[in-house]
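Hi F.,

I've been meaning to write this up properly since the lab meeting, where we talked about keeping a consistent format for the predictions we share between groups. The idea is simple: the sequence comes first, exactly as it goes in, then the structure tokens exactly as they come out, then a line or two of notes. No screenshots and no reformatting. I'm using this chain as the first example so we have something concrete to point to.
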Amino acid sequence: AMYRWADATPLADNFTSLETLMHKLVHSLLIAILVSSTAYSEEFTGIKVAPYLGYEKAVHLTNGDVTVVLCPEVGGRVLEYALNGNNALFVSDGEKKWKPGDRPESSAGRFDIGPELMIPPRQVLWNGASTTEIIADRHARLTSPDDPSSGVRLVRDFVLDAKTTQLNCTQTIHNISQKSVEYCHWSRTFAIGKGICLIPLTSPTRFPKSYVMYEEGSLINFAPEDPNIHVRDGFLEILGTPRKPKLGMDSYAGKIAYLSPNNLLFVKRFTTYPDRVYNEAAGLTISIWYPDNAMIELEPIGPRERLQPGEHAGFTEEWFLTEMPFPKDRNVNLDTVKKALHD
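Output, unedited:
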């Protein structure tokens, strides 16, 4: 069924009673509630609900050159962010084979909350099914179930620009509990692995090497040495798999650039807050997880949000894609990267 308010019978003067009026209004609302997924694609431009991999209710956004596929059925994530059919995100083999009833898989564009070492288990937020709202052209909203363990609900808005590659991803934390909570935005995006990560640096930094390395257990090395990581022309370059995969930065530039082996420069931009508290253990604004594997994790981290019952706070990441050849010698033209970061 499909319903548009513009198609409704106009309210006229010939209603004979309030009962008749109420009957028509209730009937109209019932029809509106029964909007089908195909109606979304007719009502709005560049958006539809259709199967993808094993998911029946995936949300597809497109502006022609760029395609985005959202997964409300497991965790409210981005499964595809592609330019001319080339996906920047890593989708696991298990995800590709997933079907309803299987154990939830969670790869590609995940969103979470932190701080990592303090937050309680939150499987409802991480793997639960989200509700889907089609808000406008190329704009979908995925809302998690209420999570008793953390006391929050997560609302994620995804908006694809009409002409460019820009995808805005906004996660809003809602305190649905009866007490105050303290959390932060924590993005956990899997991109195609084995690439080159470039992070613009700011001064001053608390870290002698401009980054920290997580060692065994909960130990954090504040002055690590690694041949695959160095500073060049204002960038921290991660050229390959480091000695330990989990790294952290305190840069306030609010930008991550990642050049993947499939010839895509994946850029994330986000607002930072130098005067606010960042409540990760090392006060990080960014974390990178670079294992010797097929994926890399790109993690903007937001400031602490101290929320009273009923309050909410949002954090937006702006994503961009640029086609860029991957250099065999891993010597990236930083001038090209700087241009992409500022466009």
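Notes:
The chain has five helices and 23 strands.
The two ends are 43 Å apart (CA to CA).

If this format works for you, I'll send the rest the same way.

G.
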